[in-house]
Specification:
GO terms for molecular function: antiporter activity; xenobiotic transmembrane transporter activity. The chain is an all-alpha fold and 492 residues long. The chain has helices at 3-20, 26-67, 71-108, 113-138, 140-146, 151-162, 165-183, 188-211, 215-240, 259-287, 294-330, 334-361, 374-407, 410-433, 441-465, 469-483. The protein has one domain (3-483). It is built from 16 helices and no strands. The radius of gyration is 23 Å and the shape is globular. The relative contact order is 0.12.
Length: 492
């Protein structure tokens, strides 16, 4: 399977042996296990962070190129990116996470043939989901007007969104492929492909927008093309690489069987992730309803941009946690799965805490990297304590969500998210923020929503702490028996 994946795939047994070796003193066992697990997580998380960062850069660069065409074009691209594209991105990424659970556990159990079938099933479902999304994109202008946007901005945003329709189906193929590779601890090739593509994307965007003068539609079409380049390159790697020779056996009619049950898991994954993705976007939307919202929106925009960049690190650890836990459960290594949860949570927490300290040190100057003006700088400085707390919570919560995906707890976490975020967090933010309540403005809204995140994090910590990992191994084996079409171990 190649040196890297072979090392990572076979390290679970070594980790389990270290943790189970009662002849070694406890501190020696913990030290050796921590060193091994940290090395495995770094090899998984670092390339994953790069992939998500590059994806973020591609969308942001398209927005920047569009912004240089004029204020209307900037507003249109921003609305198309943050209002409509993020919806499709979150939905497709969430549905693709079903592959993360099944492929990760099947790979750990050495049922390699099923990974390719899971990949194809997920792609079929996501492509089908892309059709109604494309219809929504096609009617984006009246939808945006219905949501209260100015007709001129809605018309320009609709042109941008039309160019993103091919991107929907690139998402449909990309996320299952990405999770298929991650489940095998093959993450570096996706990082290399993403880096090469973003360079090409910048060159093509410059040529299309400035030289060919194709405007918003051209910029959006280049973004769609760039995503399809990533898909094609990753699929070519799967077909040609020796590292995937056991997990990809070509196209199979099995991809069209068992779709209803696969859809249930995909929907649970999508709901869980979308509820998380949309939560802090709602913060900005609610702040826009405040009296004199300009300063509040400007300062929140700066803070949310910083939070978004830092969140990419947590998403990388989310992927690493999901892969490690699902692999270890599939391989019947309960101690390794539990230990991996502890190590990845501590590493992510330490990184986020350090970043939060840095932010608090530069709180008075941070806004000048984005905009001029002492008023905005003062507002950002006041919000930085809330930003720091959010970053610390985001250092823990996505990792625990990754653990949930690795264990197959998506439906449970979706219910927790609904209760903590939308029953408690958003109403509390509204009461604290607006004049009919405490009238604390943006700080009040953010305080309420931090409360929702804190409660959700505490619940996930408690559930994870109370988890019987031997039972999770048993559930993983039962899940694999249910999803394995052959009902027999593929490799003995």
């Amino acid at each position: 399977m190649g040196s890297d994946s072979g090392e990572i795939g076979g390290s679970g047994g070594r980790l389990e042996a270290i943790l189970s070796d009662s002849s070694l003193p406890l501190y020696r066992r913990l030290l050796q296990a921590t060193c091994l697990e940290t090395r495995l997580l770094t090899k998984l998380a670092a390339p994953a962070v790069i992939v998500y960062m590059v994806n973020y850069v591609m969308s942001m660069s398209t927005q920047i190129f569009s912004g240089h065409l004029g204020n209307l074009e900037l507003a249109a691209a921003s609305l198309g990116n943050t209002g409509i594209q993020v919806f499709a991105y979150g939905l497709m990424l969430g549905m693709g996470s079903a592959v993360e659970t099944l492929c990760g556990q099947a790979y750990g159990a050495r049922k390699y043939d099923m990974l390719g079938v899971y990949l194809q099933r997920s792609t079929v479902l996501l492509m089908a989901t892309g059709v109604p999304l494309a219809v929504i994109y096609a009617f984006s202008r009246p939808i945006l007007i219905l949501l209260g946007q100015a007709p001129e901005i809605a018309s320009a945003a609709a042109v941008f969104v039309y160019g993103l329709i091919p991107q929907i189906f690139a998402y449909s193929a990309n996320f299952p492929i990405q999770k298929f590779l991650q489940a095998q601890s093959i993450v570096a090739p996706s990082a290399y492909i993403s880096i090469a593509t973003v360079v090409l994307h910048l060159l093509l965007s410059w040529a299309v927008v400035y030289k060919l003068k194709l405007g918003l539609l051209g910029a959006a079409l280049v973004l769609s093309l760039s995503w399809w380049i990533i898909v094609a390159a990753q699929f070519l790697y799967i077909v040609m690489s020796r590292r995937c020779r056991l997990t990809w056996a070509g196209f199979s009619w099995q991809a069209f069987t068992g779709l209803p049950d696969f859809l249930k898991l995909s929907i649970s994954s999508a709901v869980m992730l979308c509820l998380e993705t949309w939560y802090f976007q709602i913060l900005v939307l609610i702040a826009g309803l405040l009296p004199n919202p300009e300063i509040a929106l400007d300062s929140l925009s700066v803070c949310m941009t910083v939070s978004g960049w830092v969140f990419m690190i947590s998403v990388g650890f989310n992927a690493a946690a999901s892969v490690r836990v699902s692999n270890e459960l599939g391989a019947s290594n309960p101690k390794s799965a539990a230990f991996s949860v502890v190590v990845v949570t501590m590493i992510s927490f330490i990184i986020s805490a350090v970043i939060s300290i840095v932010i608090m040190c530069i709180r008075d100057y941070m806004s000048y990297a984005f905009t001029e003006g002492e008023t905005v700088a003062a507002a950002v400085s006041e919000l930085c304590p809330f930003l720091a707390i959010t970053i610390i919570l985001n250092g823990i919560q996505p990792v625990l969500s990754g653990v949930a995906v690795g264990c197959g707890w998506q439906a449970f976490v979706a219910y927790v998210n609904v209760g903590c975020y939308y029953v408690i967090g958003v109403p509390a933010g509204v009461v604290l923020g607006f004049d009919f309540g405490f009238g604390l403005g943006a700080k009040g809204i953010w305080t309420g929503m931090i409360g929702g995140t804190f409660l959700q994090t505490c619940i996930l910590l408690w559930v994870t702490f109370r988890t019987n990992w031997n039972k999770e191994v048993q559930k993983a084996q039962e899940r694999l028996a249910t999803w394995n079409d052959n009902k027999e171990p593929l490799l003995k």
